[in-house]
Write a structure and sequence with these properties.
This protein is mainly α. About 80% of the residues lie in helices and about 0% in strands.
Amino acid sequence: MSTDDEFTREIIDEFLNDAKQLLSTLDEHSKKLEEPESLNAYIQALNPLRMQSGFLDFDSLSEIALGMERVVIAVRDGKIQTSDELTALLDLSLIHI
């Protein structure tokens, strides 16, 4: 394996480790989005997931995370309210990540 391949593998492995932690945070807070602390933690977990996946050209993942981030920011800004349906939609999006 070339040095470039090893470097790429290390970056992807680090991303996967970070993503596991971020997904765990998202899962933990997804049922409590009506609480400001959970809402902020959810946004703070989505942002690096979106940015890192975009950096690695994981475009589908980045786009899903961006859509989720926009929805949750709209909740935070009072433009939409949380509901069981919204939570289910976000959970379904997590499955696709």
